[in-house]
Amino acid sequence: MQTVKISTSSKDYPVFIGSGAIHQLNKFLLTDMPGITNISIIVDTAVADLYLEHFQSALSGFELSVCKVPSGEQAKTFDVYYEVMSFLLAEKLDRKSLILALGGGAIGDLAGFVAATYMRGIRFIQVPTTILAHDSAVGGKVAINHPKGKNMIGAFHQPEAVFYDLEFLASLPLKEKRSGFAEVIKHGLIHDILFYAHLRDRLHSLTDLSTADLEAFLQRGIEIKGEFVSVDETEQGIRAYLNFGHTLGHAIEAEMGYGGWTHGESVAVGMIFALYLSQRKLDLSFNIDDFKKWLTLLGYETTIPKNVDHKNLLERMKQDKKSIGQKVNFILLKEIGNPEIHEVSDEEILEELARF
């Protein structure tokens, strides 16, 4: 069992990583969170079928209510948000109550936003069940989607703790593993060239990944995320670097219809696009063709879907949260581990999309 400490201006909290991590949760609630009145689990239907009974058994001595919601991005809608709020009110949760977010990144986003806004804010704990959620469960960004953009309605609300039980990852389909590892790769590219080199050396297949490698990769990814969050909790500056690949990635994800392409698949293409821009604008020295071959080996798409209109992508990017005054900002790399924010004109984007 590994523990990573996340320190922010509003709260410090632990991230417990390892097989069987949820068995530490009962003790944590008793010793670190006395006075809890009610506990409600927010879980998607797929995870509930697989793990809810096992999870509840790890919480002996607590009365639990369970709110089941749709899986994936379908959970992050106004309607589902309203239904969850109504459920919590019916269960009489108060300001001393606790929400447990059991599921992938979408459930963590939804449950965290519910916790941030229910009675102006109550406590919650993240219990991620996907690789992708190693990124989203840490840092306090919580949100739901709007048809015009992903995570457009949200808040910063840090959890009390994160319990990352690697046993939950055993049932992940390969597509979801791939989605999650795009964020691991991103962390290496923006912050740690040695970690990126280690990934290239060790990661040749997502089907034969050892438990030891998985734990080490996820731990380092969480540590890197924590370093950015500790300096810039509310994304006024360098935390935006964590959005490398996400400007185009979010646009692709939205254009394909949430669930058409996974988040990680979209971000992988977004990273390649940002690397090309980095070469043209910052003279980045990096073998992009070799990077694309590696991603292909791991099963990623490396080109924009053919049925997606470039002008539509541009309009999506203009709605991105990093854009200011309808000017699109990209996270680019001066070198591996050295990101910068750059405004890119509409003409440059469309030219690069045409070349891409």
UniProtKB/TrEMBL annotation:
Its EC number is 4.2.3.4. It comes from the Bacteria. Pathway: Metabolic intermediate biosynthesis; chorismate biosynthesis; chorismate from D-erythrose 4-phosphate and phosphoenolpyruvate: step 2/7. Residues 67-177 form the 3-dehydroquinate synthase N-terminal domain. Binds 1 divalent metal cation per subunit. Can use either Co(2+) or Zn(2+). The chain crosses the membrane at residues 98-119. NAD(+) binds at residues 71-76, 105-109, 129-130, 141, 150. Residues 180-323 form the 3-dehydroquinate synthase C-terminal domain. InterPro entries: Dehydroquinate_synthase, DHQ_synth_AroB, DHQ_synth_fam, DHQS/DOIS_N, DHQS_C. One of its GO terms (molecular function) is 3-dehydroquinate synthase activity. It is found in: Cytoplasm. It holds the Pfam family DHQ_synthase. Its cofactor is NAD(+); Co(2+); Zn(2+). Zn(2+) binds at E183, H246, H263. Its main location: cytoplasm. It catalyses: 7-phospho-2-dehydro-3-deoxy-D-arabino-heptonate = 3-dehydroquinate + phosphate. Keywords: Amino-acid biosynthesis, Aromatic amino acid biosynthesis, Cobalt, Cytoplasm, Lyase, Membrane, Metal-binding, NAD, Nucleotide-binding, Transmembrane, Transmembrane helix, Zinc. Catalyzes the conversion of 3-deoxy-D-arabino-heptulosonate 7-phosphate (DAHP) to dehydroquinate (DHQ). PANTHER family: 3-DEHYDROQUINATE SYNTHASE, 3-DEHYDROQUINATE SYNTHASE, CHLOROPLASTIC. Belongs to the sugar phosphate cyclases superfamily. Dehydroquinate synthase family. This is 3-dehydroquinate synthase. The gene is aroB.
